[in-house]
Structure formats: structure tokens, C-alpha cells
Design goal:
Number of domains: 3
Strand order of the largest sheet: 11-10-12-13-20-19-18-15-16-21
CATH class of the largest domain: Alpha Beta
CATH superfamily of the largest domain: Glycosidases
CATH topology of the largest domain: TIM Barrel
CATH architecture of the largest domain: Alpha-Beta Barrel
Structural class: alpha/beta
Bound molecules: beta-D-galactopyranose, zinc ion
Strand content: 15-25%
Largest sheet: 10 strands, mixed
């Protein structure tokens, strides 16, 4: 089938005569799949229960006739005006009690039975009508769950929350214990007294906030599952997915992954951000890892500019191609855009599209069509998978949510940024890395990096400890093991149940103010035979007391001068490294390089120039090396064995074998490993 290529298709924005033209242009652009109908509810059900699918039949038939597959949306992301007029209680409420009015999109309360009933009914009609349609490839439920309405605080949600709490805690006494309600006279006598954490005179109960985040995620997932259930029943075997947003706190991608037949992501690179490819890499690794390496879909990206940042520049020439190939290099089997044809009106008229306002004689249309041709020329890539990485980085949504609650030692800790600080040195070293939740089996990894795991249960700590006992290399960073899953501080303080494996305790937190830094100095000759250079650290420091660990680096100034900043602890057959501050990037790189070498984790390709990313996918179609030049200057890359440039065919060249690749800035090479081909041929 090949790597899918296409876009969100919103034909209801255009008169039918344009649809014909769409189909022929789609062929020209090598489109193989579109996501259709995402915002079509008002057109498909213009009045309650009065469905109009005739026009959509023509859309489906046209696409099918043109050989284009459809990722069919259930149309439920934006309720039509008649629904919110008849049932204003469907509208979501903010924490301040204010209703959010219709007029934008996603204006529904995730707990609303009225919304869910109407949404499921529409999904049911669609499934019944199109289950057997030859163009149907998969289902796309809702759209970016939790994008605009992350949480709702209305009375309907409040009642749903109380039901959820009853199920979770059984008794109000249990709830009181879990929420530490003895504090500030918050003890509940009855579940009926419990409310969502609405805007209060001061910090609402943190455990209540945490549970409300969990509950709200659950409410969104129940919307998804209610629709999925009818789709699975009426069109068995057709995969069901939804497009997730990158590192989106309201939606736990790992929890959702179990209910998604394939992971699907929307990723909008920021052309002004010099690290946009790094953020993408981190997110793409998560997508690939969430379902154990299964190919995933890049369901939305922009062909050029977006419309929703403060300043929206286009992607410079070659960037869109590079970043699209990056998704494929990191395991995607589909590259789609938002959207096919640029809207004339509405809030997104300045958002780029495959067919811009300026038409097809444009850089954007040429670049997307060229990419479509290129992807179509290498169908054998589809279904290949990353070679399982030997390093993993752990992200825990629950801990992330708790970490970022208010009234903490520092309000400057943001998990995605902190985690990126740990991912950056691995990426720079060219190491392949999984991004996994803490309850994953870690025993297959040589190195496990755990950024800032604030909330840790005993079971989770024991998994990490037994990983080290079994010979693993573990790296944990500051403000970890502080609380349990109810945001209650572990007895004895930080790092709680991680104290034994890390061989230390933290006596006091010394968070640092913005624009302050402290010096850090390597202590020389750490057990692993590596040493840290001198440098700076910021954001955070803590008073670490050694209980078996040795100091690898210490603070050189500030209140903690002379006390440990980085430690190592031999534990069982493995080693646990602890980082009690935020090291500057060069130091973090040196630290990760040391730990990585001790773990025996090697880069995908040795000696790569800075900014060049290398990945491998392999499978029945062969073994492929991807080289992506994010570095801004041309690079020559020596290959370890003879390889064939598989994109040469799309350029009308011969596929000669080579030991050397010249990559221009923003260049991409996809190379078939000829040894592997020879091996499989014999
Ligand atoms: C996404 C959304 C699309 C479109 C796009 C614009 O968040 O799913 O419908 O709005 O952003 O970048
Ligand atoms: Zn609500």
C-alpha cells in the first residue's frame, strides 16, 4: 500500500463543482488518503435527527473512484447550533462558572449525556452507511480531544465526577484520606458535598485538582469509546483512531493508546524555533513507542504557515519535506496535512493548505506534490519498523500533572521542557530512544532515563529498583519520589521509595530564581571511569545527603557549595545516577554520554556531523537508513557498508550503490542496506 499521503478534506466549504477539480489535483499531488468530514456535523445533520448524507455519498464515491482512501471522521468535534440552542446545558463551563458560548468549535461538556447521545447517534448513522464503502480505510473519532475544552466545571460534570469518585474510593472516608481533607477544614461528610476544583479564594485542594485532571481525561476518553463501540460493532475490522496533540497534559497518550488501533498525531512545527525538529523527534518517539513500535500516522501538519501563533511564518523551502520525512524515519506510515484546500473564510483562512489561495503554480503545491511522488516511489517502506532501541526515557502523565500543580517549591518546573532537557543529549548523540510510561517492562533496555518523576508509587519505585538490581543503568533527576499518587509526601521525604536504589536522601529543596545559576564541578574518577567537566546549573538545587551513593559532581558556589549535585550508586548488578539540579546542556550531554557509554548504548551511526539525524527501519521491505540534515549546513556522511539511494528513482536517476552521501542543508537521504538485501536474496 505504501506510506499514506494526503490531508484533512473539508468539501463542505466548497461548491460541488470544485470537488471534481479537487480529485484531479489530488491525483496530481499523489494523494492516497484524506481525512474527511471532521467538521461536517451541521451539514450532515442540519436539523435534529434529519440526516443529509447525499452530498457526502458523492464525496465518498468520488474519492473511491479516484482510488483515494478515506480516514472517515465521525463529525462530532463541533456540535451544530441547533443542539446547543435546544440544550444549552451541553455547553462547557470554565472553573469560574462562566459558560463557553458556541461560535468557535469543541463547545461541548465531555460529561454531557445529551452531547454523547447525539454524537453516538451520528457515528452510528455514518457507520451504518459507510461500513462497506470501498473507500473507507479507517475511522477518525472526534478531533483533538481536549484541545479547546480541556475540562468542564459545570453541574453535569460535577455529578459525573462524584460518580467517578464513588467508584474510585468507595467511601467518603477513603476520599478524605486520599485528599488530605483534614487540612483547612475540608472534610466531607457525603460525596454530594464534593465539587470540581472551581475557582476558589486560594489554592484548591491539590489532590482534588489531580483527580479532576484524571477524571476529565476519562470523560474525554468515554466520549471516544462510546463512538468507537458503535464503529467497531457496525464495521468490524476497520481500525479506529483519533488525532492526539503532542505532549498534551489533558490527554494521557499512553492510557489512550490501549484504545487506539493505531497512534495518530498532529504536529505543527514552528519554523522560527531552531529546535522544532528536536521537539518533533521527542514526540514522534513517543508515538512509536506507545504501541510497541507499531507504525503510526502523522495525521496533521501544516504544508506551510499556521494561523494561530503570534507571528506565522511559512516553512522555508525544503523544511516541510525534511520534517515530513522525519516522521517517516521515526516510524510513521502516513503523512497528512491540515488541510487540502485553503479556506476562503473562517478562522483558518490564513492557515496554509496543500492547495493555497494562490493556486497550484506555487512553491507549496510543488513541494507537496514532489513529496507525494517521492513517498509513492518507495512503497516498500510501509510496515517496516524501528530496530528496538536500547535506551528509554520515562514520561508519566500522572506525575507530570501532579508536578505542575500550584503551591510548590518552584512554579518554574514544566515537565515537557524538563524531559526535553534529558532527551536533547540522547538525540545529539544519535542514540535511538523509546519514550515509555513507567509501568512498561524496562528489562530490555540498557539505559533508562527518568526525568523529574515527582509522584511515585511504591510499585513504580520497586520496578525501577529491580531494573537496576538486574543490571540496568538508571538516571533519575531532581524532585523525584516526592509524593504518592494522592499527592501526599512520602514519609521521610524525598526521594521516598527511590531512596534505597538512589542511595541518598534529600534534606531540603533549594530552587533557584530566574536568571540565577550556580557552579558545578566534577569530583573526578567516578566509578564508571568517566568524569564531568566544570559548568553551570540553574532552575533547581537540593541538599543531597549520601547514603551509599558517591558524588560525581558538586556545587561550587551558593548555599550548597561543596555538596553533591550529581551522584552515582552501584545497586545490585546495575547503577543509579541522580541529578539534583538542571545542568546546562553541555554538562548534561557529558553526563548522558558517560552513563550511556557505561550502559553500552551506541549511536545509530558513529561520527555523524552535528544536526544530522540517523534512524533505521527494517522489515519485509528491507533495511533502510534515514539521514536527515537539520543542521543548517551541507554534510558529507560516510556509510558503513554499500547502500542504495532509494529516492533516486523519484528524481529519475539510477539507484547506484554508494559508501558516501552528500547531504545539503535540509537534505534527506533514504538508503537501502545492500548487505541486508543480499542476505535476504540468498
Ligand atoms: C488542529 C486541528 C485542525 C486545524 C489545525 C490548524 O489543531 O485539528 O482542525 O484547526 O489545528 O493548525
Ligand atoms: Zn460539564
Amino acid at each position: 500500500m505504501g506510506i499514506h499521503f494526503g490531508a484533512d478534506y473539508n468539501p463542505e466549504q466548497w461548491p460541488e463543482e470544485v470537488w471534481e477539480q479537487d480529485l484531479s489535483l489530488m491525483k496530481r499531488a499523489h494523494v492516497t488518503m484524506v481525512t474527511a468530514g471532521i467538521f461536517s456535523w451541521a451539514r450532515a445533520e442540519p436539523r435534529p435527527g434529519a440526516y443529509d448524507f447525499g452530498w457526502f455519498d458523492r464525496v465518498m464515491d468520488g474519492l473511491g473512484g479516484a482510488g483515494i482512501r478515506v480516514c472517515l471522521a465521525t463529525m462530532t468535534a463541533s456540535p451544530p447550533p441547533w443542539l446547543t440552542r435546544a440544550h444549552p446545558e451541553v455547553l462547557p463551563q470554565g472553573p469560574d462558572g462562566q459558560r463557553r458560548w458556541p461560535g468557535g468549535r469543541q463547545h461541548y461538556c465531555p460529561s454531557s449525556p445529551v452531547y454523547r447521545e447525539h454524537a453516538v447517534r451520528l457515528a452510528e448513522r455514518l457507520a451504518a452507511r459507510y461500513a462497506g464503502h470501498p473507500a473507507l480505510a479507517m475511522w477518525h473519532v472526534g478531533n483533538e480531544y481536549g484541545c479547546h475544552t480541556r475540562q468542564c466545571f459545570c453541574d453535569v460534570s460535577a455529578a459525573d465526577f462524584r460518580r467517578w469518585l464513588r467508584e474510585r474510593y468507595g467511601s467518603v472516608e477513603q476520599l478524605n484520606t486520599a485528599w488530605s481533607t483534614a487540612f483547612w477544614s475540608q472534610a466531607y461528610a457525603d460525596f454530594d458535598e464534593v465539587l470540581p476544583p472551581r475557582t476558589a479564594p486560594t489554592f484548591p485542594n491539590p489532590a482534588q485538582q489531580l483527580d479532576y485532571l484524571r477524571f476529565s481525561d476519562d470523560a474525554l476518553r468515554r466520549c471516544y469509546l462510546a463512538e468507537k463501540e458503535v464503529l467497531a460493532r457496525l464495521s468490524p475490522g476497520v481500525p479506529v483512531t483519533t488525532n492526539l496533540m503532542p505532549f498534551h497534559k489533558p490527554v494521557d497518550a499512553f492510557a489512550w493508546s490501549a484504545d487506539m488501533d493505531a497512534m495518530a498525531l498532529d504536529f505543527y512545527q514552528d519554523p522560527f524555533d531552531p529546535e522544532t525538529h528536536l521537539r518533533a523527534a521527542f514526540t514522534f518517539d513517543l508515538m512509536r513507542s506507545a504501541r510497541g513500535g507499531q507504525p503510526w500516522l502523522l495525521l496533521e501538519q501544516a504544508p506551510g504557515a499556521v494561523n494561530w501563533r503570534a507571528v506565522n511564518g511559512p516553512k522555508p523551502p525544503g523544511a516541510m519535506r525534511l520534517w515530513s520525512w522525519q516522521a517517516v524515519a521515526q516510524g510513521a506510515d502516513a503523512v497528512l496535512y491540515f488541510q487540502w484546500r485553503q479556506s476562503r473564510g473562517g478562522a483558518e483562512k490564513f492557515h496554509s493548505a496543500m492547495v493555497p489561495h494562490a493556486g497550484t503554480d506555487t512553491r507549496v503545491f510543488r513541494e507537496v506534490s514532489d513529496l507525494g511522488r517521492e513517498l509513492a516511489s518507495v512503497p516498500e517502506l510501509a510496515g517496516t519498523r524501528a530496530v528496538p532501541p536500547t535506551a528509554a526515557l520515562v514520561v508519566d502523565w500522572d506525575s507530570w500533572r501532579a508536578l505542575e500543580l500550584d503551591s510548590h517549591p518552584s512554579s518554574r518546573l514544566r515537565l515537557p521542557e524538563l524531559a526535553l532537557g534529558h532527551y536533547r543529549p540522547l538525540f545529539a548523540a544519535g542514540v535511538a530512544c523509546d519514550v515509555v510510561p513507567p509501568d512498561r517492562d524496562l528489562s530490555g533496555y540498557r539505559l533508562v532515563v527518568v526525568p523529574n518523576l515527582y509522584a511515585v508509587t511504591g510499585a513504580c519505585a520497586e520496578r525501577l529498583a529491580s531494573y537496576v538490581r538486574g543490571g540496568g543503568q538508571l538516571l533519575v533527576s531532581f524532585f523525584s519520589g516526592v509524593v504518592d499518587d494522592c499527592d501526599r509526601v512520602h514519609p521521610g521525604g524525598c526521594p521516598g521509595p527511590l531512596r534505597e536504589v538512589l542511595g541518598l536522601r534529600v534534606e531540603e529543596f533549594w530552587p533557584l530564581e530566574e536568571d540565577t545559576a550556580v557552579g558545578v564541578r566534577g569530583c573526578g574518577g567516578a566509578a564508571g571511569g568517566w568524569d564531568l567537566p566544570d559548568g553551570r546549573a540553574d532552575l533547581w538545587s537540593e541538599d543531597v545527603r549520601l547514603e551509599g551513593a558517591e558524588a560525581v559532581a558538586e556545587f561550587t558556589d551558593g548555599e550548597l557549595a561543596g555538596s553533591p549535585a550529581v551522584t552515582r550508586h552501584g545497586y545490585g548488578a546495575g547503577t543509579a545516577t541522580y541529578v539534583g539540579t538542571r545542568l546546562e546542556p553541555a554538562l548534561m550531554r557529558a553526563l548522558l554520554d558517560g552513563v550511556r557509554a557505561a550502559a553500552g548504548v551506541r549511536p545509530v551511526l558513529a561520527g555523524l556531523p552535528a544536526g544530522v539525524q540517523a534512524t533505521v527501519r527494517e522489515g519485509a521491505g528491507g533495511r533502510f537508513l534515514f539521514l536527515l540534515n537539520h543542521g543548517g549546513r551541507a554534510a558529507d556522511i560516510a556509510l558503513p557498508c554499500p547502500m542504495a539511494d532509494v529516492l533516486a528513482g523519484a528524481r529519475g536517476e539510477r539507484e547506484d550503490h554508494t559508501y558516501q552521501v552528500a547531504l545539503p542543508a535540509r537534505g534527506v537521504a533514504v538508503l537501502r542496506d545492500l548487505r541486508r538485501a543480499a542476505a535476504t536474496a540468498t
